[in-house]
Amino acid sequence: MTVSYRRERLDRGVKARCDDIFALSSYREACYLWLPRVLPVAFLLLFPLFKEVVGLYWAKVLGIACIVALLALSWDLIASVGLISLGQALFFGVGAYMSAYLNRSLGWSPLFAVPVATLIGALFCTLLVSPLLRLRGIYFVLITLVLPLFFLRVIEATKILGGTEGISGLTYIPNIWVELYVPVIAVLLVVFSFRRLINTDYGMVLRGIRDNDRTVIAGGINIHWYKLQVVFIAGVVGCFAGAFMAHCLGAAAMSMFSIDYSILSLTAAIVGGPGTFAGATLGAFIMVPLSEILRTFGGLRVVFYCVILVIFIVGLPEGIFHYIQRKYHQFERLVEVEVKR
Amino acid sequence: MESILIYGLINAVMLALITLGFSLSIGISGVANLAFGGFYIFGAYFAWLLLFYLGVPYPLAILLSVLVTGLLGALMYWLVLMRVRGLILSEVIATLATGIAILEFLRWKGLGLGYEFNLPCFVRGGINIGRVSLDYQRLAVIGVGLILLILLWFLTHYTKVGLAFRGIAQDEHTALSMGIRSDWTAMLSVAFGSALAAVAAITILPLSMINVNTGYDVLLIAMAVAVVGGLESFLGIIVASFILGYAQIITAHFFAPHWMMVMYLIAIMVILAVKPSGLFGKFKELEERV
Question: Is the ipTM of this complex over 0.90?
């Protein structure tokens, strides 16, 4: 008879009482619940204040991470109704070009151009996508891969909107604090409102559509209308990211429709863990600094994204966030197991 | 007018040749292989390496490169696809990422602009048909394309392997109960598809040069033809490549070459919006939309 051990996983006491109602009996338990929420928020809000310490470069990297996080969040929201998109760059590019056009041709200041471009861009994308929303599974995936490339080629062929050169010479964001804080606040706002949205009754319908669309139809719900609303909300978030980025860079370029942004946001969402929104954000804050560190490799960076994406899809499809969450809410101990021979 | 007819025909066969490998895996046996563009360029580049770095004779280089590309496809199936098999969206994302990784790696190796990356033609020279001059390579494209079409038709309709390819696409469990080893068959189909990509690349690319951007275009072309024709339909590939091939030549003739790619994209979007299973697709009609 030999003794061997197995690992036993148990839920922590606070968690075990209920899934979303907690009975707190000490500050320690309150901290247990609050710290994972407060610490990231505090980090995001305080980081730009230390821009002299960490350098303006890394403060701006945080801004870019926030922009990518917004894009990943919009991916995650569409994915929560079961529409998997490979073309998040569509929202990004449309927002950027819309804002650039308003700024450059009509002379609007970014203060008006960005919000208007966000709304009109989202509306435009929703109308464009609406005939395609009835598609399911792989057919929808294929068409989302094609859509941003279509814009890329049309701009290249017709030479509208500046052709291959893009629209440059936009008004920059006037104040550095605005440039640093607007994306941070936008990300926080979007993460927490999406997390709340998906747990409401409305969100339950969305998850129902993802799990079994025909059952939801059988329940007398117009799923097309719901999908349209979700694409519009995701479009607002994605177009805002594009419009804001255009004013940070001072230009809207054709590369904003390129597959790089689609892959980057997709990787962020998959690495972080789809379905929780916090995961997509976490993924963006891992991928973007990583990509800045890898900048010396130049073109090889995209290879790294893709390899990471494949590794996560194959090895850890639930994503980092789910993994950490599970580890946080459970503790492990070794239990003796008697094995009889 | 003659030139439109003849070049349209060549273009159509070229599209069919490109699409065969893509369609064999995603259409006929239902395993997504969006790394197709990567294999296409890899096949050509590997032949180029063998030819100019190691001095291998051209026929042997072609054979080796087709073999190695096929093995690479099998390796991708074994490492990546087998683990996400059945989750079609994961398959698509994982293979697309693999393809982009291959392409961008090759771009990093300097394949982005290289004018020197050029495969030799099979036979130099050309003939005149009426007022249109044709080089032998374009005739070779037609020849290889037709031979492969016929071979593949026989493979998928009259051999056990080919019937197994179609079987696992229709119903994997039933196929299993009939004694078809599903993983092995799917791996063969991905390997065949990748090898066909290399064949297509080595036949077509002597007409231009080996460029990474072509890899992305080839994926779109294959997708356009496969989607327009209907993913699993063999007849669909032929009809769609004729429609798109002629449409492309006419576009290039009357508008500008820039519009050729736009036309593919419009074709994909219109077909997916109107009839997602394509002109000749049948058995996915109930699953495609709600």
Answer: no
Tokens linked to A115? 């919000």
Domain map (residue ranges) of chain B? 2-274
Q: CA-to-CA distance for A235 and A258, rounded, in angstroms?
A: 17
Chain B positions touching A131 (Cβ under 8 A) are: 273
Domains with residue ranges and CATH for chain A? 2-339 (1.10.3470)
Q: Which of B94, B112, B227 sits opposite A142 (nearest CB)?
A: B227
B36-88 pLDDT, tens digit each: 999 999 999 999 889 888 888 888 999 999 999 999 999 999 999 888 887 88
Measured in angstroms, the CA of A269 and the nearest CA of chain B are apart by: 12
- Residues in B closer than 8 angstroms to A217, CB to CB, are 290
**Is A299 at the interface with chain B, CB within 8 A?**
yes
For every residue of A85-145, DSSP letters joined together read: -S-THHHHHHHHHHHHHHHHHS---HHHHHHHHHHHHHHHHHHHHGGGTTB-HHHHHHHHH
Instruction: Kindly tell me the number of DSSP H helices and DSSP E strands found in chain B.
Output: 11, 2
pTM, two decimals, is 0.89
Which of B83, B101, B288 minimises the CB distance to A314? B83
Cα–Cα distance measured from residue A37 to residue B279, given in angstroms and rounded to the nearest whole number: 52
